[in-house]
Specification:
It is built from 3 helices and 2 strands, in the order ααββα. With 115 residues, it is mainly alpha-helical. The chain has one domain. A two-stranded antiparallel ribbon has the order 1-2. The protein is elongated, with a radius of gyration of 41 Å.
């Protein structure tokens, strides 16, 4: 082939247009949209996983720091921010009202009068 033949072929090819069937364009557009949606979902999924991990880590750190300093004997604090320490009460077993075995009877008596 000569150069003139090649030029003629290029000129004819550059002016050639072809319109595809409309169904082909619909299929192409749906494929392109699905790829975009998949990319967005992938990014959102990664961001949400990172956010969950950060929140779980921060809650763990806060609870670890709080519970490390926690004294189970300290109940609350007063106005001067001094801790109030719980103390063990002595057992009062000579009073039948405070005995544990009478709790059911007391509960039944209160239920009868409507409390």
């Amino acid at each position: 082939m000569s150069e003139n033949d090649m030029k003629k072929i290029k000129e004819v090819a550059s002016g050639h247009t072809m319109t595809p069937h409309p169904d082909v364009w619909k299929k192409l557009n749906t494929k392109l949209r699905s790829k975009r949606v998949k990319r967005r979902m992938f990014v959102y999924r990664n961001i949400s996983i990172a956010a969950i991990l950060i929140s779980v880590l921060s809650v763990t750190v806060v609870f670890t720091l709080y519970l490390g300093k926690h004294d189970p004997k300290v109940f609350s604090s007063n106005e001067q921010y001094r801790p109030v320490i719980l103390e063990e009460l002595e057992d009062i077993s000579d009073e039948p009202l405070y005995d544990v075995k009478y709790i059911d009877q007391l509960n039944d008596a209160y239920a009868k009068i409507g409390f």
